[in-house]
Request: fold
Amino acid sequence: MYDDVESDFWKEIFVHLLHKNMVRVNASPLKMEQCKAVFEEFEKNHPDCKPDVSFSSSYVTWELFVSESIKLRLFIQNQIKASVMQKDGNDYVKVCDAKFPNNPFPEIEEFVQNRQKYLQELAEKKGLNQRTQMQDKILYEFIKSHLLRKFKNDKETVWSLEIKNRDFILHIQNSRKTDSIILNSDNYQKIIANL
Reply:
């Protein structure tokens, strides 16, 4: 299954590129007959990038790997459709796509120039996300431990604990009440003590 942190990150970059393309002054669309020259110019400027290009009589595709699991795909016919694709098993799934009204290569050039910076930023976000998930798992176990002690001798109360976003929802049911209580790192000890 694909990584949501990574797909969300590239979606954000993609939206930024689309916006720049839409507001660029003196811009014009990319026609099929211009593709070969534009692709050659791109490859000359970025010899380390190896896009996969396919020409047909009615359309052109251009694909560039951004990372091991992400690729940017252009489909050019009478309009330009760009997609971000993410590896999911042996296939690629579309993360997002949009029609670019103008030649997207000025934005793609800028993107390629900033690619290493983007990859570093993504690595930092992924590391941060992994730490956050680990902290949430540890906190879940602390809360569960407190609840087990609190209800150790209470055979009447049924409870369950679920994680929702960065909060924990405690569901309690007994003869006196049925309730759902939101717990977090700041309040869980006090709330559990007062149950």
Summary: The CA atoms of residues 11 and 67 lie 14 Å apart. DSSP finds five helices and eight strands in the chain. The first strand starts at residue 52 and ends at 55. The mean pLDDT is 90.
